[in-house]
Model the fold of this input.
Amino acid sequence: MKTVRIHSYAKLNLSLNITGVKEGYHLLDSFVCSLDLSDFIVLKERKDALINVFMRGMGSENIPLERNVALLAGEAFVKKYNTRGADITVYKNIPMGAGMGGSSADAAGVLNGMAKLHGITDLEGLKSLADSLGSDTGYMLHGGFARMRGRGEQVEKIQSSQRLNFLLLCPQTPVSTAECYQEYDRSPDGARTDTERCITSFLQGDYTGMGAAFYNALTRPACALNKDVERALEEIAAFSPLGYGMSGSGSTVFALFETRELCEWAGSRYRGKFRALTVQTVIPEEREKPKLKWRNPFVLSQEEQDECK
Done:
């Protein structure tokens, strides 16, 4: 039986404006990018239509089956395309509940892997499936630089070969997305245009202007709910980056540096309690055989280590 291996990448929201509410959902306008930090997914074809998902690392083993979007993605794919199932192992490397799209990455990775396993090239159908699984899952199918609007289903790809360098601080305490939006609704920040300014500066290669335009409407609510986010922002700002902010609804915060050397210097000098990562942006489609970054590896058996090669 066939086996497919997929890397599915984390994302950062470099800007996140809330533009309204429709049918109970908040509408967003966000500039997003992919990072060279990925979950690794191995799919082995089955003879029947069953989907089995095995999670490894980052505490993912405790995710209830009914909330495991990797499982839901596999089952949705089989139902839509009437294919055989798969035994799927997800090796987690993207922190969970951190605002970097870890669960969406797994759902998108499973869809991409199943499509590769069965020779499905229906991009529109895969996008529709992805959108039904999560607000940013459609974007995560292909990643890269993009502007996301609406509930996240409106994805405008931004072509660029630029590589950005970020230091991440990742508190272990997560932020509930639902509670974060509820906190925001108690005191909305009003309309802002940071996403437009952020993208314009990026395309012009004006990293200082870009950093100045970093803004996330959920930062204040996240800080109110989780003091670790507030502390991480204070600590990362102390390195005097070009700009800094929070991704998604938290709890990960990021800082942009002009060069890789400066970024790694900041990471080496960090002495706080949060997990620190130095990462670069990546265009997933340009990396057929990317190198995994096991920055805080969990214990793997020899067989599992071989899977990740």
Q: What stands out?
A: DSSP finds eleven helices and eleven strands in the chain. Confidence is low (pLDDT under 50) at residues 289-299. The radius of gyration is 19 Å. Residues 10 and 101 are 6 Å apart (CA to CA).
